[in-house]
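User: Sequence in, structure out. Go.
Assistant: Echoing your sequence, followed by the structure tokens.
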Amino acid sequence: MPPNSKFLIHEGAAIFSELLVKNGEFQEERMTQLLLEEPAKHAGCSGSRRLSDNISDLKAQIAANQKGISLIDRLVDEFGLATIMKYMVAIQDNAAETVSRMLARVMEQHGNELESVDYMDDGSRIQLRIFPGQNGKIVFDFTGTSMQSYSNVNAPMAITYSAIIYCLRCLVDETIPLNQGCLRPIEVVIPDSSLLNPDKGCAVVAGNVCTSQVITGVILSAFKASANSQSCCNNFTFGVGGNDENGNYVQGFGYYETIAGGHGAGPTWDGCERCPHKHDKHPDHRCRSF
């Protein structure tokens, strides 16, 4: 996680779409090429510091997915495909209805237009306006957000969607499983080439640990559920190893820790400046104000 990256190539392996398993065989040779060899082709860049850990992680993820497949197969065998599909749809329908009710209450209490803005340390602006749109949907419009940055605080759109679904789940009055249905009642508008929708090749490594927290704070502030804090996870990272100056692979390690970022005050709690960041450490924290 380089703190001074300016382009995506400075941030290690970037895999857009690749077969991890082909014809039942794990593609270890191809993964080694993508994780170790390809990143090292760029001047001043290196491949993975500890390839063996990366390969083990990928195999563990395959095993986890395979376990999920087998468990779903078992459910289908026991209850039938039609029943399983019915409940899968019902879970998403329930989430959509729950979020819709919450949004309706907010609009009734605070008006049909909610706004919030906050800034990154470099002055980049993240602006949000929430208002009723067409077909009964609520629009989350980030127009007015700064253009993409020649730094690594750019955040791919998936980060904004993750922040939105996290906040919606925090704000509802009911305990619901996290699923895509939470996003069904909303429409998201993010300008092209902005900080929250950067062009291909922009550096993004700090988007997940810094910009994501500002987005979350802006959303909760717009809902009048929680004040903003410094909005950063305060990450400490270092490592050794990778490709040396002669291109030889040296096995090393990478260390990464989120120290603290604090959180803003809310209806029933005080702000905190020396505690773990609320949105990073406590995903089930409830921030309701209504």
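User: And one key feature?
Assistant: Residues 281-290 have pLDDT under 50 and may be disordered.
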